[in-house]
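Supplementary Note 3. Input sequence used for the single-chain structure prediction.
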Amino acid sequence: MPAKRHSSLPGKALQHVSLKDALPIAMQLHQNGHLEAAQQMYERILRLTPRQANAVHFLGVLHHQMGRSEQAVKHIRRSLELDPKVPDWYNNLGNVLLESKQLAEAADAYEQAAEMSPGNATILNNLGALRRAQERFEEAEVAYTKALALDATRPEAHNNLGNLLRLQGRTQESLQHFCEALILNPKQHHARKMLGIAYYTLKRFDEAAKVYREWLLEEPDNPVPKHYLAACTGQDVPDRADDAYVANTFDEFADSFDANLEMLTYRAPQHVGDVVKRLGGTPAKQWQVLDAGCGTGLCGPLIAPYAQRLVGIDLSGQMLAKAQPRQVYDELIKAELTAFLQAQHQAYDLIVSADTLCYFGKLEAVSEAARRALAPGGWLVFTVESLEGGDASEQYHLNPHGRYSHRKAHVEYVLGQAGFTHIGAESIHLRNEGGVPVPGWLFTAQHP
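The predicted structure, written as discrete structure tokens, is reproduced below.
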């Protein structure tokens, strides 16, 4: 996530700093979050001494923080041409390339850093993240294990290894590392969440509930443990996930969202795009389209050819910031879905929603609002996770991972009651979790 920009130090004041003092001042400004002032200083240094490797490198890091990854890679590579002996610089290059999904190039950078500094636990931890993104799980585990052998007090390495083990279905082993991460950093919320989920997966329900209750005692207003405690115990289950929980979860997840979903073989946007293609035929930018719960905009490029106007809404401001650079949306709005739809009247010809209604238990209000927001003949296309087995009278269920699953027949009934016709449901796999496909339903419904 880009650091906060400050401009409290005017450019004119910087012009009077000597060249000798300029680099440490620029780095201090950079460290303190005064990015625009730091950029001015780095660029001034490079106008006078264009081969100043430190200024070139940290200007690259700054570009990355400000969301300019191509410029970041260019500057960091240039700094390594000027001074190829700094392992941390290869590590920084790997970080930028990994976030840009240039996995092979990131691997080369991390491997070079690890070869130059074999005792650097930070580099090995990052190499592990890269190998996980490449789905080279054995090598990822080796890298994380080496990092912890060098420094067993690194909570992020324990947490990363715990996540990797859980992804492979090795839940019992993952618990040890989640516990270590919590001991080392009690405020590490992600480790707490995963620890609770790991306990639940092992059917150790009381221990899972204990994790969330203790977290809530420390932070009684935090929506995250409150939501997971309800998921874990089945008590006080909300009709839908709290707005603050959704916004908090996805704001934290935004920077790694696309990479993580790619690793999980996430298919919901493609399924939605396939249906839109069937409904729309030859793309002619013919519809007013709403991407409801657009996230980072994965659906956007798939449906944009059919959109005269494409609007995206989401509760997470950070996710919307990631969607903006795709440049396919005419408007991006931070809003809660049902309330937004209720304020529309026959405004859209198509509403799509990929993996958003899995944060709703009751679907009546949002279905009715969607029908009112559609023009006659308009289509609603969305996915939900499938609820199978268990108590047949249970129409939806809040799962330990925090998402709801729904019974197909119940969703069809709710859509019919809301006034939709031509209701269709297609069985799909949404993604993989722990190497196991997650079953879901892809629904289509038409405003009569």
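The radius of gyration is 24 Å. Residues 75 and 128 are 25 Å apart (CA to CA).
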